[in-house]
Automatic annotation (TrEMBL):
It is a multi-pass membrane protein. PROSITE patterns: ABC_TM1. It is found in: Cell membrane. The keyword RNA-binding does not apply. Pfam families: BPD_transp_1. The keyword Protease does not apply. Residues 62-246 form the ABC transmembrane type-1 domain. Gene3D superfamilies: MetI-like. The chain crosses the membrane at residues 14-34, 46-63, 69-88, 100-122, 185-212, 224-242. This is NitT/TauT family transport system permease protein. One of its GO terms (cellular component) is plasma membrane. Belongs to the binding-protein-dependent transport system permease family.
Length: 258
């Protein structure tokens, strides 16, 4: 029965993805004919160029960008979740750290890229640190709020069983906050791709952001759109990976849904 439900879920997800691609393709063709400019090439020409460039050129840039994003998201997920759970479970820690978080969260941290380049150099570290600095707060706040929303009755029920602090986190706090953390992670992926695109325009020769902007400077708009297509597919891959993790770790949230 579970296998049939999993197959149905995968089929629905595939059909929704195909529908989204077709809708974007129709819109792209409409813009191509309406604008009538070389700046918006025909979709089929960009798609053909994408498949020509993918095996050697685009794959190299995608792997570099994907590596930067995965490292940054992994570090942000571990640190942000740990701090958020700690703040949500301890009022004293929350009173100590919340004012700092509330002051730093709204700041446009992308302005710190020059500072990060001075501190960590022009290589990979500064770009990864910029992504971490931006998305860690979203995961932290989501984890803290998730702990706060747990009803007190559940705490009393777990504590009445004689479980210790470690078991409390494992069997109650972490499962209750995982859906919120996964939602924050999904939002963070979109933000991290945008930030990476910006960061890859400085002091680098590899990365899909560099490829797109370099194609724009060379006025090769077909190649530029093939890079945009590659960036979109990378984002889709990351989103699907998070969906699979959510289905595996938070399967109970799908119960009762059609």
């Amino acid at each position: 029965m579970k296998r049939i439900e999993s197959l149905n879920t995968l089929q629905r997800g595939f059909l929704q993805t195909v529908y989204g691609m077709l809708a974007i393709l129709v819109f792209w063709y409409g813009m191509h004919f309406f604008v009538g400019s070389a700046a918006i090439p025909a979709p089929h020409t960009a798609i053909l160029r994408f498949f020509v460039l993918l095996p050697v050129v685009l794959s190299r840039h995608l792997l570099v960008s994907l590596g930067r994003i995965v490292i940054a998201i992994s570090i942000s997920l571990v640190l942000g979740s740990a701090l958020g759970l700690w703040m949500g479970a301890s009022q004293r820690v929350d009173r100590l750290l919340s004012p700092v978080v509330y002051l730093l969260y709204p700041l446009p941290k992308i302005a710190f890229l020059p500072v990060l380049m001075i501190l960590f150099g022009l290589g990979e570290t500064s770009k990864i640190m910029l992504i971490i600095l931006i998305i860690i707060f979203q995961i932290l706040v989501a984890a803290r709020d998730g702990v706060r929303e747990i009803p007190k009755e559940l705490y009393f029920s777990v504590l009445s069983l004689g479980l210790g602090r470690g078991a409390l986190y494992r069997h109650l706090i972490l499962p209750a906050t995982l859906p919120k953390i996964m939602t924050a992670l999904r939002i963070s992926v979109g933000i991290s791709i945008s930030i990476l695109f910006f960061g890859e325009n400085y002091a680098t020769t590899y990365g899909i952001g560099y490829f797109i902007m370099n194609s724009w400077l060379m006025a090769d708009y077909v190649e530029m759109f093939s890079g945009i297509l590659a960036l979109s597919l990378m984002g889709l891959l990351l989103f699907k990976a998070i969906d699979l993790l959510e289905a595996r770790w938070c399967g109970w949230t799908r119960l009762g849904k059609g």
